[in-house]
Design brief:
The complex is a heterodimer. Chain A is built from four helices and three strands, in the order αβααββα. By secondary structure, chain A is of the alpha+beta class. Chain A has one domain: Orthogonal Bundle (Arc Repressor Mutant, subunit A). A three-stranded antiparallel β-sheet of chain A has the order 1-3-2. Chain A starts with 12 loop residues before the first helix and ends in a 7-residue tail after the last helix. Chain B is α+β, with helices and mostly antiparallel strands. Chain B is built from 24 helices and 21 strands. In chain B, strands 1, 2, 3, 4, 5, 6, 7, 8, 9, 10 and 11 form an eleven-stranded mixed β-sheet that branches. In chain B, strands 14-15-19-17-18-16 form a six-stranded mixed β-sheet, covered by helices on one side. In chain B, helix 6 runs antiparallel to helix 14 and helix 12 crosses helix 14. The chains are: A alpha+beta, B alpha+beta. The interface between A and B is medium-sized, with 19 and 25 residues.
Amino acid sequence: MSTPSKFDLPQGTLDLLILRVVALGPIHGYAIAQRIQMISKEVLQIQQGSLYPALHRLENKNFLVAEWGPTETGREAKFYRLTAKGRTQLKTETETWERLTEVVAMILQHPLGEPS
Amino acid sequence: MNWFQRLSKTGRMEKELDAELRFHFETQVAEKIQAGMTEAEARRATRLEFGGLEQIKQDCREGRGTLWLVSIVQDLRFGVRILARAPGFSVTAIVVLALGIGVSTLAFSLYNIAALQSIPVRDPATLVRIQRRSPENITPGLPYASIAYYRDNAKSLSAVMATMSAAPMVLNQEEKRVSATFVSSNYFSELGGSAANGRLFDAARDDAGSAPVLILSFRLWQRKFDGDPSIVGKAVHLGGKPATVIGVASEGFASLGTDDPDIWLPLLQHSYFVEGSKPLADPKFEGLIAMWGRLAPGISVPSAARELLLLTNELRKIYPTVIWDHEYIVITPGAHFLSFEGGPGAPPVLALVGLLVFLILAIACANLGGLLMARGADRQREIELRFNLGARKLRVFRQLLTENLLLGSLGSIAALPLSYGVLRLVLVYSNAPAWMSAMPDWRVFLFTSAMGFLAALLFGFLPTLQMVRRKKNRSLWHQFVVCAQVGASCVLLILAGLLVRATLHTLYSDPGFGYEQVLSIDPGMSEHGFASAQAQTYLDQLQNRLRAVPGVTFVSIARVPPLVNTIVMMTSIDVDGRRIMIYPNWVGPEFFQTMRIPLLRGHYFHNGEKNAVILSESLARKRWPTEDPIGKQWEKSNSVVVGVVGNTRAMELNNTDATEIYYPPAADDFPAMSVLVRAAGDPNTLTPAIKAIAGSIDIGLYPTITLLTAGFRKNVSIVEQIAAIISLLASIAIFLAVVGLLGLVSYAVSQRTKEIAIRLALGADRIEIFAAVLRRFAWPVLLGLIAGVAITAGLSQILRRALYGISGLDPISYVGAMAILIGILAAAALLPIRRAFQLDIARTLHSE
């Protein structure tokens, strides 16, 4: 671990990230953590203590379904896949997120000291 | 997976969770080894990164939303283990609960069948019973003229049915009479009844003018005709009148109300089967025709009642003498076996039964509470340990409550077959209609579960609270438990004693009249529409011919023959503001000799005497305590008291303070008269001769001949049955009280084992120790006894009015019950104390 890059993700963001990663194709928990770490260029490190409860929560909400299958190393692992309901959820969540960041950015980019 | 799947597959999910996390762990370790760590280092590092594995699992489990239930399941499992570890306690507790809950379930099941369940008819919700009332009058029936008027004019009723029970009738000259009900021709079709054979009544075919027909009940068809299908279409003789059997009702057909007849006849053909009767034509006919209706679609009961009231006012213009002042119509649900609006005697009896049943449950719970308390002492160490290990109070409390609920539901489960078995016996024994089933329905299940829950709260809440609070002093609760159970047992025992004594009294004491050699002959003239003069002629002829029979000593007429009718008349007078209930009777001159009622003063009625009354001694004394009643005017009538006779219990066998008044018959009374015959020897030998005479004077009549001894036996057997039921309840109560007291005294002894051991070691007298332990129970026992006596004294007034006239304050019953109770309690207390005396003093003192 190079830098202590842990920062708290806003509420619900982890779920969005997981859904997004799982949308790429069936994947097990370890690989999800790895991939998020990789894509974020090691900025985000997902703790097991957050990852698995989130996965189970999403599974119980029927956004994900899981199946056991062999990994490339031949071990049995639990692979998660997006459901139709999960895909819709991902879409709405993504839109919400984009609008939110846009708005937040808009406010933050507003020059200081100028009356609105 | 949905919630239920997640719940039911907990085991598999646990395994998968473990495997999933293990996979993550192992992969991470493998990667670290690849990066150059040793395996030991890699594992250590991964473990550090992972943090608490168990915490992660728990967080995952919470996501399932089933955790609360799973923990209850854990509690239950633990509870089962705890109960299994003490099988003696558990079995006792379950038996105690099963008895307590079983008795209440049985009572509720009976009430459920009679008053809550709908009888199996088509569309029971719209079926209603229609009765008329006025501020002065209550009657279950209506004149047929009213029924027909409502039927033709009421728009709120889509159909109107009429039923009329008949006196038992002779079928094919057989000795045993059959019960018959006249019904309107739409009866079966409106109720959705089906025929086991042949056809049922048809409004188009079975009217006044068509050929006389009848329908057999399934029961009679089996009993009398061995289920022979060829009976349909054949002619039988009913009351001497030929009629064709057109069908047999199906076995499960449910009659309306409590009526369960052997035979149904068309109401329109009433005057054919009962010669001379005119129930349909004469609006003043005094028979009881019941009216039933079907509410038209969308019509509520109040709006139907409003319409019928308007029609009643129209009717009054047509029949001014038939319709009462301020008459109105009462509509009640019709699809129940019993509806409690009708009987004024029913509510107190219902309340009494409810109270007795609740007492049993309360005793069971109080005793179980005692047992639980005793057990709490044994479990103190276990609970202490759990607190020391960091369990929260609420968690331990919940665990203990779960155990109680488990016991409660086990008790309910055990109670169900118990109540089912007894109910089946009751139904078979009482010859209940075939549609009545002992099988518990949802109401019974609900009731039983609720009782189990209630019981668990009653017996468990306080002891559990105290266990969790770890309070040492539980004596107040103890004393309350003892007080409650002694009081409740006391009530039941005294009631049992009273009823048993009442039975004995009825059986073995002089009823004040001689019934053994007397026969009653009821010619049934009023049903056959006899006029007064015609009836008088018939009675005179019958009496004269009977007097000529060898072996007959006395013959008399009486309107209310003793012991024969279940319905007796009552009247009342007020003396100095106190109401005296009186049984009136209208009798011929020889009545008192026939019934062997002694004349105390004055004279018997002379033949044809008018304006005279004879009083029983008790009535004479109540009315004129100090004066001679002979020659006095009776109340506001123009009758004079001519005689005083001995008291009898003829109308109410158990009532020793019954009072009677006798009138000579007026002209109107003759059609309702019966004839009483006293035989010199065995009255049975006279029956054939009497039957021949009674039948020959008027061939249209079918007189009912009853031995008064048979009526007496019937009266007594009812008392006996009720006494047996209460005795059974009382023995259950005693059993429960013994169990409970055993538990409590064991507990009291176990609390003081050390003290007893020290005292014994110092050479104390055993009796003294015994007394010291028992002393704490003396007050509560005494209080319980006092409460029990007080409650019973109150209750016995209800009993007296509703069931029999037993003296509610019979000292022998009270003292006897208390003596038995104290004896049993002392015996129950002795057992654990004996055990304490045998304890090993040295070991007891060494422990701790």
